[in-house]
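#lab-general

N.A. 3:47 PM
ok so I finally got the sequence cleaned up, no stray characters, all 139 residues accounted for. can someone with queue access submit it? mine expired

B.Y. 3:52 PM
send it over

N.A. 3:53 PM
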Amino acid sequence: MALTIHSCFQRALPYEKSEQICITIVGAVELTEITVAQGTRVEQVLAKIKMNDEVDLDQIYGMRRLFKAETIVVPYRKGLTLFVEGEVKEPKVVIVNENASASDILAQVDLTERADIRRFLRRRRFRTGTVIQVPSKNR
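B.Y. 4:20 PM
back already:
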């Protein structure tokens, strides 16, 4: 399966059937987007990118196959590695200790005016690799 490392700005239109999918990789790696064939295994994607020395690959199931566009969070060895997106000024990787609260996570990101903090604070526990969506007041 061919892997092409580049920006995934040229995404397929919603009505086009595509066998290529865009995977975004964040965390203990250089942020990158990769276009791969549907069915590519996570380990094949990770083999093609540059990783940080602090990466913890034991927490990733590399044999899982990818069938749709998604974000893969590559965890660091220490603490929880989360990716925060949604109503934030800039989506980013956040590293917190294992007992971190939602408030601890919010302290590390810049929220937009539309962020619904009350709904976000209701979250309970977080696990490494979680992609966190900060909700909007407009929903």
